[in-house]
Amino acid sequence: MYKREIGRFGLPSVLACGLLLVALGAPASAQTPSPLTPGGWNAVINSGSNPYSPTYAIVDVTQYGTAGTDVCALINNVFGTYNLFSGTTGNFISSGVVIDARGATTLNCQSGVNPWANLLSNENANQYQNFSNTVLLPAGIITINTTWTLPNWTHLVGEGPNTTIIRAGSSLSSGSDIIDVGSEVPSDYCGSTVGDCPAIVIEHLGINVGGPSILGKGIVNCCAQELSRVNDVAISNVATGLALTDISAENSGPYTNLLISNVSKCLSIGPATTIIQPYAPTMINSRGVHGLTCLPVASSTAAITIDGPNNTLEDVTIIGLSKATDGILIGSQGVASGNTLVNVSGKMLNYVIHIKNPTITNAPLNCPSSSSTGPYFTVCDLTMFGVAGTNMNGTIKDDLTGSLVSDSTVAMYTLGEIVVSGSGPTNIGYSRYTTATVAGTATTPWLVGTSSPVGTTCTVGALYSCTGTSSSCPSALYECGGNKGWLKVTIQ
Amino acid sequence: MKRSGSAVPHCLLLSSLMLGAVVFVPTRLDAQQGEKAVYATSNNLAPSTVWVDASAFCGSVGTSSCTSTTDLCSVVNSAILKLVTVSSAGGIVDARGVLPPPGSSQSQQPGSIPCNSNPFSSSNGNPITVLLPAFQINFTTGISWIIPSNIHLVGAGLATLLLGPTSLSQGATNLIEMGAPPSGGTCSTTYTGIVIEHLQINTNGAYGGIDNQCATSGSYVNDVRISGNPSTCNSNNNYQGCLQGNALTVGTGAINSGPYTDIIVLSVPGSTCGPAATAAANISCVSVSAQTRGIRGVTCLGNQMTGSGASVAGGIVISASNNSIQDAHVESFYDGIQISGTTSNVLVSNVATGGTSGCLNNNVTNAVHICGPNSPGGSVYPQCSPSSAVTNVSLTGIANDTTINDDPLLLPNTVLDDQTATIIGCNSPASSTCTPNSNPLEAMGGTTGFYVLGGPSGAGGPYTRLTVSPANSNFYGSHVTPVATWGIGAVAPGGQCYTPGAIYSDAAATSGPSVYVCAAGTWTIVPTS
Question: Of the candidates A104, A402, A417, which has its C-beta nearest B468's C-beta?
């Protein structure tokens, strides 16, 4: 964007410069404010007799190590020098830093250091968790040997999903997460057993584990809430790309512009792990996923699983390799009420969207039951706009109503709540509207036309409003009867 | 990318450049104060005219040590003045290098710097990005910011904290104005390209947070936390530091502004549940009175008064057509989303309301309230703006997850529609009333998957409407109103039904009619011929 704004002063350089400038009669580095040193800071032009000085707007990691120090250690070294608390003065000195690691060249983190280890240690020592830090990662493949656990108020920025790539090293144990967004460790920096680690942002980078073995999860959010999001990230070769794993991830997101490939599962929302007695673990809402391309492996059983309430999934494309893979599987493991899906397309899958019908005991009563003792189904109040699929077993499979939608495109499918009959009462079905028109299993559209319907091929239970003249519409309303085709509704 | 080599060659080069600059071109350097150094093609250091570092304008010129600076805003203003002098096309003013004085170990936080003026008076309308530092900026008494066109204000995250004064100058009602507000009701000047993102605002008196009355296209707010002042929002200060105005106001002249994204509002920050009688009862987290590019991603927490229902307060209030609200969470307001005025074409999607903290009145009575003249709830559910004429509203994914252990009389709803006198209320399986439950995950209000309100058929006629929530008093509680839906199942209903006018299709019918209607309390097959 601009010319390189260099002029970074390494500590050795500054010391030597100071000696030389003193010898030459120029002012020494009297401008250095205690306790900071100018090492790594950019230069800024001053007025007066002191032409250049460091500016503390952004610090360059290249001056925080020796030749060969890896980028993880370099970042950690910066946090060791520049953080909120000064051991020298006993004062709190800052509440944020921008760390520029784009100049680092040793990207194989053999040190096995979490780059935020010093910051976390400092925060824990001082019982102060609010230190804004922005870390600019370099282009290239960064190999890590320990899970990166990000503290709250962290903004991790790469140079692009195909340019800054984080890869698992040989020392990262199988099944490990690559990046944890916050932590549920009781002694950790969020301060409680189920903490809130807000404002953690990951942008413009890739996670590609590589190698023959698929490890754990790419990005895991257990407990980062408001202002925590992931944007413009590519993830591949892990078991699960992005996972929201517990209730303390509530109100996080949005998760935007994601490409997740060669994974068993691209996205999982829930099920929750924290139990609030006497109920089964249940997720809470997020700010949704907006923009996801998902390419699961052939052995995937479900590319996306939603087991939490009130999420938006918008602009999602799923391209599978097997007709045994569900695109979006809803409610298979936990309560998933009130979700909204918009513009979802799939190819080479079992179903683009598969609504499951398990029952759950001790469930929060998100979905009504016809009995006070249940069964409580996990899914209700699901709204879908714009669902498309090609080369599928079906576009929408709804196990609650026993419906299979075969239309290649569906404008709307909204599944509501139970419909009852009798004094019991008995659950006899679900409220629902759909625009699906291909005659299939229990898809009942409400059709509108200007002439009477013809033929006997229609979906039993469908309606037809005839809006033409009395000659073209002998009846204003028709219904599709069993084995009878279209029947005139008789007005009495 | 990595710069290599020993310190001494670096030093020799740098020292030579610096010494040479001091000795030979001091006047030139004076003119370039604050500009960042870049390598020129000759390997000499040269100033960059698109990027001015504000730290060079601290009180102790030439030291970059701003710890004694008494007015951050004058520093920023000086840097803006420098930028507009050297770059007619605009550029970046970087104040991130301005350091605060050290905080004390007792205060457990870093120091802060006052702001004694509006820092944007030097702006000439060209695009300028202002990067704010990561510490607390204390607005002195009377000071508020009026941001002109094409200013992009970027914080360093939540550590960039703009702390308001206890009072503003006469006439000012918000800490930050996106463009100058009109003196009357109409914008005589409109603004564009005003952006606020990645920062935190604490109000500290009887005023609001961000106000946009006249900034239009290209003006938006993103990634911002707005709250009262945790230090003074308590009983010791009579709660004067709590949020006492709207956190974000979008006025009638802010047409096509937005989107307003990733916002969290805490009227009563900290662990306290907040005030009761002294609280601001009529505030909102977001109030929108113009067509915008939408509200996306908002968490909104009110106070005990806004949650009590006494003020009929709405967390997010929409009183203009052509707006969308997506991915919102509201606590401690009578209404989560309130739609009022002569308003149409509003889309509300994925809203979850209700409290989780256990404070008094931390719940939401109505997740979405469509204002109008036809109240179905009487005194139990007070009306909002009864003269409103709201049409063409689409709601999807609406949930009211309440904890009402403090108010067992409260019967929460997902949708209260005062246009059609409709209440869609709690899920209460097989009981006649909504039974309060203290579990924080309890969905007393339940969820509404889909509720679409069209317009009246003819003058005052019935409304077009579709919903999948089959509210009926027998099954969902006595306070709800019946809402006809279309059901689908694979059995023939043979008995009692609870929603007059509801339709049911038996998709497994093998012969003859397959459609039933709920008439006179019984599922009745629709006669055919």
Answer: A417
Contact flag B326-A312 (C-beta cutoff 8 Å) = yes
Mean pLDDT, chain B, as a whole number? 83
Instruction: Give pLDDT, residue B143.
Output: 94
Residues in chain B: 529
Weakest-pLDDT range from A195-204, A217-226, A406-415, B264-273: B264-273
Q: DSSP state, B407? A: -
Min Cα distance B10 → chain A (Å) is 6
CB contact under 8 A, B109 and A43: no
B27 vs B224: which has the higher pLDDT: B224
B37/A366 touch (CB, cutoff 8 Å), yes or no:
no
Q: Exposure of B470 by Cβ count < 10 A (0-12 exposed, 13-18 middle, 19+ buried)?
A: buried
Pairing state of beta strands B463-467 and B486-489? unpaired
Nearest CA in chain B to A439: B507
Of the listed ranges A302-316, B115-129, B212-226, B359-373, the one predicted with least confidence: B359-373
Nearest CB neighbour to A54, from listed B22, B64, B488: B64
The answer for A218, left when phi > 0, alpha when psi is -120 to 50, beta otherwise, is: alpha
Kindly report the pTM of this predicted structure.
Answer: 0.90
Q: Of A5, A84, A288, which is closest to B48 when you measure between CB atoms?
A: A5
Tell me the backbone φ, ψ of residue B351, rounded to 5 degrees: -120, 125
Which of B157, B329, B448 has its CB closest to that of A155?
A: B157
Q: What is the chain B residue with the closest CA to A62?
A: B2
Distance in angstroms (rounded) separating the CA atoms of residues B150 and B471 = 50
Cis peptide before B9 (omega within 30 of 0): no
How do residues A281-300 score in pLDDT, each as one tens digit?
677 889 999 999 999 999 99
Q: What is the predicted ipTM?
A: 0.88
- CB contact under 8 Å between B490 and A402, yes or no, is yes
Tokens of A436: 């699906």
CB contact under 8 A, B7 and A16: yes
Q: What sign has the CA pseudo-torsion B4, B7, B9, B14?
A: positive
Give the pLDDT band of residue B461 (cuts 50, 70, 90): confident
Least confident interval from A7-21, A39-53, A163-177, B272-286:
A7-21
